[in-house]
UniProtKB/TrEMBL annotation:
Protein name: PA domain-containing protein
Record domain PA: where: 94-168
Membrane topology: Multi-pass membrane protein
Function of the molecule: Intramembrane-cleaving aspartic protease (I-CLiP) that cleaves type II membrane signal peptides in the hydrophobic plane of the membrane.
Ranges that cross the membrane: 194-212, 247-267, 273-302, 314-338, 344-364, 426-450, 462-481, 487-506
Amino acid sequence: MGTSSPEMAAALLLVMAALAGVAAGGDIVHQDDEAPKIPGCSNDFVLVKVQTWVNNREDGEFVGVGARFGPTIESKEKHANRTGLLLADPIDCCDPPRQKVAGDVLLVQRGNCKFTKKAKNAEAAGASAIIIINHVHELYKMVCDRNETDLDINIPAVLLPKDAGNDLQKLLTRGKVSVQLYSPDRPLVDTAEVFLWLMAVGTILCASYWSAWSAREAVIEQEKLLKDGHESSLNLEAGGSSGMVDINMTSAILFVVIASCFLIMLYKLMSHWFVELLVVIFCIGGVEGLQTCLVALLSRWFKPAAESFVKVPFFGAVSYLTIAVCPFCIVFAVIWAVYRRMTYAWIGQDILGIALIVTVIQIVRIPNLKVGSVLLSCSFLYDIFWVFISKMWFHESVMIVVARGDKTDEDGVPMLLKIPRMFDPWGGFSIIGFGDILLPGLLIAFALRYDWAAKKTLQSGYFLWSMVAYGSGLMITYVALNLMDGHGQPALLYIVPFTLGTFIALGRKRGELRNLWTRGQPERVCTHMHMQPLPKDINCDAIDVVTD
């Protein structure tokens, strides 16, 4: 509690990185390679709003999916016709209706015949559109058979899930029902993605400065001890007390294996109880991250409380400031967990998530560019595989399914930052995985620590250009997301080449790549040679390796 344990930081890193690479919006327009377009059956699959009125009073709104066949559904609400709704007789419309519909919308059950046959029968009876109630709670894609030729259908068809369709049918018992069918377009620029971009860049910015400041404070304290003649500061135990974790080559490579296993476990065990378990894990990590950030911020104003410690069973020495802050953090996390399905619960989730990411970046460190390159390269391949290639084995994108929380009644797993699409007629959330911030953030924090150690200016260093590269890569991710009609994208596919490529290119141009690649810190001449007889060629970097 007082200081974050390295073991917890490493565990949280793996949990978050298992959802490393998905930036997603809701899928409104869909292509389908398994149901190719044919003449007369070439519409994109779009979501359709079904607004209802009962006895001329506005009532509920339902959402269905449009068919591959028929005319394109109107996108503007003001241009969509408001039409009466009738229940078909026979109810499945597999045979021609017994009544004349006279321009009304026909409501039918799924039945056992083809979607196209229902639409033809409804059109022949005079219907202006057909709404089909599915026999299950999911939505199907209404397609045509490959060998169908008579596809001259001139009325739109919409499929509703079973529960929504039954609710719509019940409205008919209350009086005269009218409906309006339309499929509004999404705005060209998603403001939620803009704020999500600012949130991701700001999180890395804050975490990097905290990491670099902590490293500089540790160096200052070390040099002070060396100057005062405290030789014990050179002991390995002193270096371990800092509570920092340096990633090595082995752990960088094993990350892909462990994270993949964790992701498959999430995919296979995804259920209500498992999401509840993830919520508990997220709350524990969120409490740890939030209290660490608050203690660091408040210690400037409450220095005596931050420097006074008391022993607590199982936790060791804990500062009085931590004891004062921790109950607030626990209550905050519990309140979020209880009310996480409320409209504004995303605010609490983002606060806990950002605090957790900042804390992990401050604790877990990349020692040199070699380890950073291996970690990000492995994450790059991992992201692409589980977003795109996993479809070949699992028939769906494992990463996206886990991130959205499919197969559960939850609106996605908690290991995500999310912002509601406030100006989108379809609502929903734009999301980004923790790993899309955390993994590049480790490299960017390393860049700032190196710049400060080398006493580089902002322009001559690596941090500024790494931040610009990350922001550009994330921006390209959202551009690709919109060009792909909302299909989830592996964000690291774009972020890693921008960030890592910029870092390596700058290092090579400046002739510092070898030092960045192997040492990860600038060469410095030791100023404390008078302390004890040491080899003539020793420098401060040799001491730093021992004490960091």
